Amino acid sequence: MAVYTEVSDEELEAFVAGYDIGRVLSCKGIAEGVENSNFALHTERGSYILTLYEKRVRESDLPFFLGLMRHLSANGLVCPLPILDRRGEALGRLAGRPAALVSFLEGLSVRRPNARHCGALGEALGRLHAAGRDFPMTRENALSVTGWRPLFEAAQAQADRVSPGLRERAAQALDALERHWPAGLPTGVIHADLFTDNVFFIGEAVSGLIDFYFACTDALAYDLSICLNAWCFEPDGSFNVTKGRAMIAGYERVRRLEPDEVEALPLLCRGSALRFMLTRLVDWLNVPPGALVKPKDPLEYDRKLSFHGKATSAFEYGLQR
Amino acid sequence: MAVYTEVSDEELEAFVAGYDIGRVLSCKGIAEGVENSNFALHTERGSYILTLYEKRVRESDLPFFLGLMRHLSANGLVCPLPILDRRGEALGRLAGRPAALVSFLEGLSVRRPNARHCGALGEALGRLHAAGRDFPMTRENALSVTGWRPLFEAAQAQADRVSPGLRERAAQALDALERHWPAGLPTGVIHADLFTDNVFFIGEAVSGLIDFYFACTDALAYDLSICLNAWCFEPDGSFNVTKGRAMIAGYERVRRLEPDEVEALPLLCRGSALRFMLTRLVDWLNVPPGALVKPKDPLEYDRKLSFHGKATSAFEYGLQR
User: Fold this and answer.
1) Where is coiled-coil annotated (chains A, B) (predicted)?
2) Rg of the Cα trace of chain B?
3) How far apart are the CA of A69 and the nearest CA of chain B, in angstroms?
């Protein structure tokens, strides 16, 4: 649940007057995104999302994120389209914060995706990678393999308080990943956070992808591994290979995995599971007393790590060749 | 900021299928109302607010609130219109809670109303009272004079911790109000909580009134006194008689105050100021540690009480005859 920056009616009307979108009709703070303040805005011209960037987003990254969403939209991907103001800028300021207006997307997040949702998501991910192919800007993935040891160091002393043996399991995975992390895979723009809450569906068709604030330049197949982790495990911790098969096949309808990506898939999955286990663990150990936000469970990803540690080939994830 | 009940996509789609409003297109939790969970819902048919009633609202009161909004809408007042489901019911259940769908109203709350806003609000209040005239249901005002002593008793021991002398000032006001509270004034449906966040404007015209969950049957002029308190004081604590004049004149364009209401106005204003001072004081003294919600300042209403204690006639509030 987001904490909102308050925006007065006067500030809002002055901000919107900088765009060619008519007068403000209504504006409501919405519970979407944990990093920023978001508002559903209606004007005489249509519906928009107004985002105020709070301090967890680096202001210097905003031109990358906003430029990327414009690029992807221009290349046919349905994602929020940043609206340009009368000066031609996508980034403005409101209530003392960097702010942007993007188009409103219809759709619902699914809480329990089925195999058809996974297939549609795989295809949407492929389209995202294709649409991002010639995006000229780059942004390093701060949460890839070189970023994991600092997270591990920050959390390891208390890891066994969360689950006995967690420190050792994380250490072993980290050692193996640092030694064997694949280099030279096809890279490009990745979303890097395509969990179910960032994908909208109408029925079983993807109606849009949102929240590009972890997007960066990295191995394309790493993005697929994040989605396999986020979408294809069951609540009991087992990997659902039917969902994995649907997702990989959906992806390959748009972009066929290359042999080195196929070979690297188990390691990539293990890496992305470690990445989310570690960031969740750090958040878990740093919940302020009395906080209303319940942090996400790091042990969900500890269980996924154990699956990936034993997997030996992409076929175990549902690749069919 | 509201704490939201989570609603899954499956539950939501099943709930909406009970209405003749087409398929769900999107649904976002919004930061509106502190008592309930609210969602901005788009369907193929239009925009709605979906409300899940949390435990602070008594379920047995819901037929009064929903019936009232339907009655007021039918009589031309712009307020949320509860949508009937296929069985003809306005009240349903979703995620284990009583739930209702109402029409979406455009408009913005003003943070700093000017005299024209106050005039428009006064007129809207008059229209609300006129539209409610023949509403057949009644609901007692639990927060009128007989409800204040229990609040005072709950807070008095700690009142001076909040401001020296506050206990004595509240006790004196309460004694005077209990002795002299007017009886026999014209009564009807009152909103009883028409603060600026419950009034939408487009430009300087009222576009709708919302949040009828304190509505009850009480003296109509008491409702006006609540608005005078909420809208016509300046941040420095002074009463702005230009705003009061605009509000009362606006109200009287629709419904002229009767002589006994005119006479009672200072006492009614003092009473409503005490009511909000006491409920705020109780909330202030009962903030759970670590809460993110900052309670509203009871001392704002302590200062207003002191103005009303000295006022001797409705002319000091801007009545012009």
Assistant:
1) none
2) 20
3) 20
